[in-house]
Design goal:
The protein folds into two domains: about 160 residues, Beta-Lactamase, CATH 3.30.450; about 40 residues, no CATH class. It is built from eight helices and seven strands, in the order ααααβββαββαββαα. By secondary structure, it is an alpha+beta fold. The strands form two sheets. Strands 2-1-5-4-3 form a five-stranded antiparallel beta sheet. It comes from Methylorubrum extorquens. This is Histidine kinase of the HWE family. Keywords: Kinase, Transferase. Pfam families: GAF, PAS_8.
């Protein structure tokens, strides 16, 4: 009887899974719910351009010597570009997207000639305008391990040699930096929401406390007033006005001194 050691069986199984995945659309088996939940947490889709994202995208284009570079986030029915160099649109259709392939990749995906790769040769962006020919993309992966898109570079000419090792390593580093920017943006938004909620709660508590004080003071059988150290009056209770005959306008400020 032939025996297969456990690690060899696992390796064969892994190759089978990768092979099966390469033959299918990554959107069909990737964890769409986790990806969409992560994008929702980041609150990044359809936001205005930000220089920090634009700068990293420009670096990717220059280092990889590519006319097009994109920060592509894969939404439910579209790739949306947080930053773009050399590309006019801020989003495209899923069937035109090559970047969705990074959802299946643990590392940089390089396709030297899109017309020869079975995953992309029928893509409308390959068979028609803008006639793209080369693609390389690094996954954008959250700290929780969810791939939400990619940092990609595109050329209209095939590149049989792909990217150099330095270019690939730089693309990885820029993708990591973009993920850190996204996470920083998320944490900043969370802190802002917390600070806003705290400020609102504090303002509400102060308002309620002031209301309780005024109710108590207005029902007190004695005159009560509130002034600052200079004698400027900010509050006089109902008994004050009843006793002095002053109006609210006459009493507040320094006017209360006229009745003393």
């Amino acid at each position: 009887m032939n025996r297969v050691c456990p690690w060899a069986w696992h390796l064969q199984s892994s190759f089978k899974i990768v092979s099966e995945r390469q033959g299918t659309d990554p959107l069909a088996w990737s964890d769409a719910d986790a990806r969409l939940a992560a994008l929702n947490e980041y609150q990044i889709l359809d936001t205005a351009a930000e220089q920090s994202f634009e700068n990293l995208t420009l670096l990717a284009a220059r280092i990889c010597e590519a006319p097009v570079a994109l920060v592509s986030l894969i939404d439910r029915d579209r790739p949306w570009f947080k930053a773009r160099i050399g590309f006019p649109d801020c989003e495209t259709d899923l069937d035109r997207s090559v970047c969705r392939l990074v959802l299946a990749e643990p590392d940089v995906l390089v396709i030297p000639d899109l017309t020869l790769d079975p995953r992309t040769k029928a893509n409308p962006s390959v068979t028609g305008e803008p006639l793209i020919r080369f693609y390389a993309g690094a996954p954008l992966r959250t700290p929780e391990g969810v791939t939400i898109g990619g940092l990609c570079v595109i050329d209209i000419k095939p590149r049989p040699a792909g990217l150099t090792e330095i270019q690939q390593e730089t693309l990885r580093a820029l993708a990591r930096q973009l993920t850190m920017l996204l996470d920083l943006r998320r944490k900043t938004a969370e802190l802002t929401r917390t600070a806003t909620a705290t400020a609102t709660a504090t303002a509400t508590a102060v308002s309620e406390s002031e209301t309780r004080f005024r109710n108590m003071a207005d029902n007190a059988p004695v005159m009560m007033w509130v002034t600052d150290p200079s004698g400027f009056c900010t509050y006089l209770n109902a008994r004050w006005y009843e006793f002095t005959g002053q109006t609210l306008r006459e009493g507040e400020g320094y006017g209360w001194l006229d009745a003393v």
